């Protein structure tokens, strides 16, 4: 497919997948992610043709206009949609396959200063939630989902959902389900609830089995408080 064919497909992909798009005017002024991808297509062709400085200049201007930073050497497949787009960063050796959905604030970053492949590979059909950071030369499997604000530093299998800091895979084998952000579990909340219940059980055991110890502990607390008051006066 030629350059203009790729750009046209990117444009049509928005009409197919975004119910918020109501008019061509909206498309022109409210979809920086689409325009960033369009300018990337041009810059990437120039970069491959060894016009590297010109390609970096184009993407520099694009960054200023759209607030989306894409290195022209990155490889981005067809029908990749950056929704909203503000703050998205796609590093030099990133590879993004077809039909990937990326929300605002996502970073595909590197963790090494060594030359070579140091950015993520995002396979077909992946959805990356807002603010997620995918770091290093790792692969996110086909049709996987990355929860908002997750930090992914390990590979994610196909058809999986990963959330958290660092991200953990919480579901496998669900390829075609929609990505319902509001249904993702809150791992930290569940852990705190577990700890609170565990502490309550232990306190109950102490109260039932160690009443004398608790009474003596209370006496010591009263003595300590009296001592503190005496020191202050």
Your description of this structure?
There is one protein chain. The chain is of the alpha/beta class. Helices cover 42% and strands 15% of the residues. It contains 6 helices and 15 strands. It has helices at residues 3-17, 24-30, 32-48, 52-66, 187-209, 211-232; strands at residues 69-70, 75-76, 81-82, 89-90, 95-96, 101-102, 107-109, 121-122, 127-128, 133-135, 139-140, 145-146, 151-152, 161-163, 168-171. The protein has a 6-stranded mixed β-sheet. Helix 1 (3-17) runs antiparallel to helix 3. The N and C termini lie far apart (86 Å). The mean pLDDT is 86.
Keywords for this entry:
233 residues, six-stranded mixed β-sheet, 6 helices, 42% helix, 15% strand
What is the strand and helix layout of this fold?
Elements: H1 3-17, H2 24-30, H3 32-48, H4 52-66, E1 69-70, E2 75-76, E3 81-82, E4 89-90, E5 95-96, E6 101-102, E7 107-109, E8 121-122, E9 127-128, E10 133-135, E11 139-140, E12 145-146, E13 151-152, E14 161-163, E15 168-171, H5 187-209, H6 211-232
Parallel strand pairs: 1-4, 2-5, 3-6, 4-7, 5-8, 6-9, 7-10, 8-11, 9-12, 10-13, 12-14
Antiparallel strand pairs: 14-15
Helix pairs in contact: 1-3, 3-4
Going by helix content, strand content and strand pairing, the class is: alpha/beta
| Gross morphology | elongated
- What's the tally of helices? 6
Unreliable sequence segments: none
N-to-C span: 86 Å
The percentage helix is 40-55%
Order of helices and strands: HHHHEEEEEEEEEEEEEEEHH
The order of strands across the largest sheet is 3-6-9-12-14-15
Radius of gyration: 26 Å
Seen as an oligomer or otherwise, the chain set is: single chain
Strand residue percentage: 15-25%
- Strand segment count: 15
Average the pLDDT over all residues and give the rounded result: 86
Biggest sheet architecture: 6 strands, mixed
């Amino acid at each position: 497919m030629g350059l203009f064919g790729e750009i046209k497909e990117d444009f049509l992909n928005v009409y197919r997948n975004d119910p918020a798009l109501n008019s061509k005017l909206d498309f022109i002024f409210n979809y920086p992610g689409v325009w960033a991808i369009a300018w990337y297509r041009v810059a990437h062709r120039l970069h491959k043709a060894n016009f590297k400085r010109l390609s970096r200049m184009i993407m520099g201007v694009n960054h200023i206009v759209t607030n989306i930073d894409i290195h022209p050497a990155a490889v981005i497949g067809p029908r990749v949609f950056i929704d909203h787009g503000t703050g998205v960063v796609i590093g030099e050796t990133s590879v993004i396959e077809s039909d990937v959905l990326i929300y605002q604030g996502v970073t595909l970053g590197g963790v090494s200063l060594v030359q070579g492949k140091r950015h993520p590979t995002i396979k077909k059909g992946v959805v990356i939630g807002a603010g997620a950071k995918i770091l290093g030369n790792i692969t996110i499997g086909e049709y996987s989902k990355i929860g908002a604000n997750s930090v992914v530093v390990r590979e994610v299998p196909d058809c999986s959902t990963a959330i958290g800091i660092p991200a953990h895979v919480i579901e496998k084998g669900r390829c075609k389900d929609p990505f319902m952000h509001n249904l993702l579990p809150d791992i930290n909340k569940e852990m705190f609830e577990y700890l609170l219940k565990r502490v309550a059980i232990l306190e109950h055991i102490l109260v039932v089995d160690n009443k004398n110890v608790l009474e003596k502990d209370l006496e010591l607390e009263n003595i300590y408080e009296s001592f503190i008051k005496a020191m202050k006066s």
